[in-house]
Amino acid sequence: CEGPGGCRGGRKDMALRCAASLAAGRQPPCPRLPRPAREGTVRWNSAAKASAVKLNEKAGREKILTLESMNPQVKAVEYAVRGPIVLKAGEIEKELRKGIKKPFTEVIKANIGDAHAMGQRPITFLRQVVALCTYPNLLDSPSFPEDAKKRARRILQGCGGNSLGSYSASQGINCIREDVASYIERRDGGVPADPDNIYLTTGASDGIATILKILVSGGGKSRTGVMIPIPQYPLYSAAISELDAIQVNYYLDEENCWALDVNELRRSLNEAKAYCNPKVLCIINPGNPTGQVQNRKCIEDVIHFAWEEKLFLLADEVYQDNVYSEGCQFHSFKKILYEMGPEYYNYVELASFHSTSKGYMGECGYRGGYMEVINLHPEIKGQLVKLLSVRLCPPVSGQAAMDIVVNPPIPGEESYSQFIKEKESVLNNLAKKAKLTEDMFNKVPGFHCNPLQGAMYAFPQIFIPSKAIEEAKAHKMAPDMFYCMKLLEETGICVVPGSGFGQREGSYHFRMTILPPVEKLKILLEKVKDFHIKFLEKYA
Q1: Residue 209 to residues 113, 212, 402, 521: CA-CA distances in angstroms?
Q2: Which of 64, 17, 18, 66 is nearest to 42 (CA)?
Q3: In angstroms, rounded to a whole number, what is the distance separating the alpha carbons of residues 506 and 399?
Q4: pLDDT tens, residue by residue, 72-100
Q5: Tens digits of per-residue pLDDT, 455-472?
Q6: pTM of this prediction?
Q7: What is the rounded CA–CA span in Å between residue 525 and residue 152?
Q8: CATH number of this structure's domain 73-119+418-539
Q9: How far apart are the C-alpha atoms of 134 and 131, rounded to whole Å?
Q10: How many Cα atoms sit within 13 Å of 285 on the Cβ side?
Q11: How is domain 124-406 classified at the architecture level of CATH?
């Protein structure tokens, strides 16, 4: 094939085709080569084959982006809520659709707090206002109540061109920020809130990641340390990894209903000072995945600790409407901070977060949220707005949804009775399911489940026999990942192993949402019970 028209005779296109054919085990198309005597049989001496493979390698081109060349901080990110167990659940769903037989007929995704995916009905008033904003021609329809139209007109007046399709200011639509400030004042019994301290966000997650981004600095032992609860919501560990900050763990007290102990905060802080500069303290209240609701004294202790140690406080309060246990009450960090007096209120830097995704709304897909940031240095405020402007603005439909959360119908308005009925129905139903889950789990041998005081998850501790732990090691899995994978494969129930949230060494848990309808939840809990008993029998 050296002659004219051959692959080494100047025809580069032929050279590429020959090399590709050889690599695939096919007869090369070069016209200078003799055809094989029998179709499909190609004989090459080793030198010719090596030469062609080398040519093919040259013809190809290495990928610029590989696991070795990618951003190592992104590679370090883990997010258990949508991790390997969920990918496996997706594969099983595909197999079920193809008719492959399983010991179950559906996958129950109890891994994530997605209320509407679990069958919760939307709040009518919220959807009416968003529909009116999305398609303003409906403002002339008699099918929509006047209080919904009034809110929709106000939101649209705040939009460029009176359209939800326009960009908003990076900080969010002004009238919605005003409504958020009014909501916070009502919630906190008159504690003042400034709309200029309100930032509308793409869900609470966006706000948390943004604040962390502006807080992280330094290198070596001066690198920013971020204190997070263990167990924690994996957003925090993921954001810390992505920013190459230092994760500083403090442990919640499982034996005391996942309480937060300031002595544990102090231990964690003092140990971390040896290798980083701890300057951020994250609190999740009510807790995710643990469901505890912090009392007033605990919050006062945490604020005093942050003031004393000069820590920037992040208060994740997205479950503030989800409080179920008698004697428990949600207290916002902002309110308690204000009531502790000016020596605290004027100095402690606090960012608190809320969202449309949880509570009674469950509107995860709108990606609506806000953060209130107080006592921020004026120059840093400008830097924060600059950082937010890079992503232009949060989804405007999500901003509209957030407005209805903070500006719902009030007594005397046309939609109030239906709204309050729907809201109370959702919350009462969740309270019933929280108690049902706690009671049923505590009847299972080898289970211990603390009271689900709030939020929308159970996080039971489970006993895993040593034989099962050894088998998990053989499969290169964490023991609770092994357990959850077996649960998924044998029952179709998808939960998240506790190792994805963090837990004390030697203890094992999983997180399960309580969102499925009551009857389905009962079936789910019975299946978990039966599986666990069989698991113990097999590995005991």
Answers
A1: 19, 5, 19, 33
A2: 18
A3: 44
A4: 777 776 665 567 888 888 899 999 999 99
A5: 999 999 999 999 999 999
A6: 0.84
A7: 42
A8: 3.90.1150.10
A9: 5
A10: 24
A11: 3-Layer(aba) Sandwich (3.40)
